[in-house]
Write a structure and sequence with these properties.
Layout (H helix, E strand, L loop, with lengths): L5 E6 L5 H13 L5 E3 L3 H5 L15 E3 L12 E5 L6 E2 L8 E6 L8 H6 L2 E4 L8 H14 L18
Parallel strand pairs: 1-2, 1-6, 2-3, 4-6, 4-7, 5-7
Helix pairs in contact: 1-4
């Protein structure tokens, strides 16, 4: 049986090629299928490669005009943004198939984008994190929760140990 779990990343107008390179590295570490980005700022600097593992050879990094138009079939769009009404990541149950949408290093996701996302989550911190760090934390949380997804078995205490 094929693995039902699937994740990809959408970057809204990323600024820093260093952070995009680090996002690609995280994508490789956590089994992300593809990374999409919008905007022109990264395109101008994309030749500055920080992807030392050359993950871009295995995971597509695709420039697009509109993240909403490329949501893979069956994927739940999840905005990652520190806004009122967002769910705290530690309490979040990840969808089996998700596209995680991240804002730029020097701004936020537009409300218009958050509105078409099914879920909005935030990382409870005392300060702002950079783009690459945020992507790493979200993907680690997804991996650490393992089968604790909407359709998978839920974490619980194992009472039958021998």
């Amino acid at each position: 049986m094929a693995n039902k779990r699937y994740a990809c990343i959408g970057l809204y107008n990323p600024k820093s090629p260093e952070n995009v390179g680090s996002v690609m590295r995280a994508a490789g570490c956590y089994g992300v299928a593809s990374v999409f980005y919008t905007g022109k700022r990264y395109e101008r600097a994309r030749d500055f490669v920080t992807d030392t593992k050359k993950i871009h050879q295995d995971i597509p990094l695709i420039g697009i005009d509109d993240l909403k138009k490329i949501i893979p079939l069956g994927c739940v769009p999840v905005a990652v943004e520190l806004v009122e009404g967002a769910r705290a990541l530690p309490e979040y149950t990840h969808p089996d198939r998700a596209i995680y949408i991240f804002g730029p290093e020097d701004g936020s996701l537009d409300k218009e984008i958050r509105d078409w996302c099914e879920d909005v989550v935030y990382i409870p911190t005392t300060g702002c994190m950079n783009l690459a760090a945020t992507v790493n934390v979200v993907l680690y949380d997804r991996m650490a929760k393992g089968n604790n997804t909407r359709s998978g078995p839920q974490f619980g205490r194992e009472t039958d140990r021998t």
